[in-house]
Amino acid sequence: MESFRFAHPEYFYFLLVIPVFTLLFILSRINRRRSLRLFGENALITQLMPSVSTSRPIIKFIIWMLALSFIITGLAQPQFGSKLLTSKRKGVELIIALDVSNSMMAEDIKPNRLERAKRAIAKLTERLRDDKLGLIVFAGQAYVQLPITTDYVSAKLFLDAINTSIVPVQGTAIGAAIEMATKSFTPNFEGSKAVIVITDGENHEDDAVGAAKAALEKKIVVHTIGMGLPQGAPIPVGPSGSQEFLKDKDNNTVVTKLDEEMLIKISDAGGGTYIRANNAEVGLNNLFNEIEKMEKSELSSREYSEYDDQFPVFLSIAFALILLDFFILDRKNKWLRNYSLFGNQKGTSL
């Protein structure tokens, strides 16, 4: 369905000049008539100035006011477009909780755990169609990086900005991330909801298993992806390629290892699946295949169509009126002097 609007209705205030011009024109015509009376009778003056038209200035003034009206209307930018539509789509709501603690910089998965996870999430957004996606980052605390949305382009932009310094408190609070995720879904959404926790599993902060159980009670499934290899790897602390690694108080190199046991417990408590990432694949796509099998619910969405500008039509009409004005002379044509568009003009007029 087509709708009509003005992109800049404030320009209509300029229409107020038309009554002003009209008043000035009327006053000038009255003043002209008074001045002519000083020279003699109207009939005598008409005989002395047979080529002077009393109606054409009025016609020309009306044409100019109409042209001005169309110009102002064109500046207000009239537009045609479709009305707001509500469409129904089917999908699930998915929130990814991404670990950004320093241990995610370990390079047992190339180029490192965090970068590989970010690439996998970016590829996942390319598969999404009717599903909503949210993004939470966590270390010692959890933060919403991207509220749940269908704007996958924005998801990629937010993803690019993620690094280990985005969360000021270090640690691995998986439970806090799950709790925040359960609060971040669309209120009153009755469809399937899933949380995917991507981490190395070294949880030292809270009760992640309890948080997963609480989420499942709210019909939110919790999946886990283990980033890292069982043998582990040191944590780089210097510039890339500097081979400087995190050391403990005894000056021993700290090795971060994947805690699969913890991640399996979390996924079991959350009714989900655990997948271990490796250098061949992260496993996010495999999890998404499982999520696609979940019951999908109708999602309402608003769609706007772009409006087409119609101002050239109004400006063209204004130009045509101005052009017409140039063909209307102030004085009568000698061949048409005895003819009038408005009947006999012998009487007094403005």
Describe the structure.
The longest helix is centred in the first third of the chain and has 21 residues. The two termini are 49 Å apart. It is rod-shaped and about 120 Å long. The C terminus is likely disordered. The chain has a six-stranded mixed β-sheet with strand order 6-5-4-7-8-11, with helices on both faces. A three-stranded antiparallel β-sheet has the order 1-2-13. Strands 3-12 form a two-stranded antiparallel ribbon. With 350 residues, it is of the alpha/beta class. Helix content is 36%, strand content 21%. Helix 7 links the parallel strand 7 and strand 8.
Quick summary:
The protein has 350 residues and is of the alpha/beta class. It has helices at residues 17-37, 42-48, 56-75, 113-127, 152-160, 174-182, 208-217, 260-269, 284-292, 311-327; strands at 2-6, 78-82, 85-91, 93-99, 132-138, 142-149, 193-199, 220-226, 233-234, 255-256, 271-276, 297-303, 308-309. The model is unreliable at 341-350 (pLDDT under 50).
The geometry reads as rod-shaped
Query: Overall mean pLDDT score?
Result: 82
Please count the helical segments. Answer: 10
Question: Low-confidence segments, ≥5 residues, pLDDT <50?
Answer: 341-350
Largest sheet: 6 strands, mixed
Query: What structural category arises from helix and sheet content?
Result: alpha/beta
Topology pattern, helix = H, strand = E: EHHHEEEHEEHHEHEEEHEHEEH
Widest beta sheet: strand line-up: 6-5-4-7-8-11
Strand content: 15-25%
- Number-wise, the strands total 13
What's the alpha carbon Rg, rounded to whole Å? 38 Å
- Give the terminus-to-terminus CA distance: 49 Å
